[in-house]
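[step 3/7] fold_predict: job queued, chain A
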Amino acid sequence: MTLSTSGRQGLLALPPGRAQGLIVFAQGCSRPSPRSAYLSEWFRQAGFATLVFDLLAGPEAADGSNIFNIPLLAQRLDMAATAGRLAAANLQLPLGFFGISTGAAAALAAASVRADVAAVVSRGGRPDLAGEALTAVAAATLLIVGSQDREVLALNQDAYRMLRCERRLETVPGATCRFREPGALDAVASMARDWFLTHLALPAARMKQDSC
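[step 4/7] structure written:
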């Protein structure tokens, strides 16, 4: 389902049966990403609705400085999350963010002012760019970094120390920043799915997962 708001578009995908939560993707660019589509399908099969949204559109996307404009990206993510809930016809749907690159900082910045965000996952992201907002995040947060992406790993370690919420830092052995190595993206998908099932899914879905 195509979703449009304020001149920007996104793709809302609903799972088979009742959605157990809504995961909104926060990307640091507006280019379509096959990796995001792949991860979205993993989450959808786990029972989540997903929204992959263009946080930047048109001339905004052409201006490289906007990719690092965390307040702007966080504001757009906040709007996308509300629009996604409306489109899914459930304003009470548990809400999670999946942040990529600078989108991870936007996800955490948005989560720091939205009490209804239950879980955040960062994939190879720059959570450090959220700055002092990290100390106000209440959502359970998982940071995933490739073990060979050493500079970003160090920045994630800094962000991890600033977070006060339930948190975890995981590395994918042998992976670099884009997780193109064999099995790397599947490892990300598995970690993220399990985190969302634990911290985002409705109680009935968690009970079903525990019984498997």
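[step 5/7] annotate
The first helix runs from residue 34 to 45.
The beta strands are 2-5, 8-13, 22-27, 49-53, 95-100, 117-123, 140-146, 167-172.
exit 0
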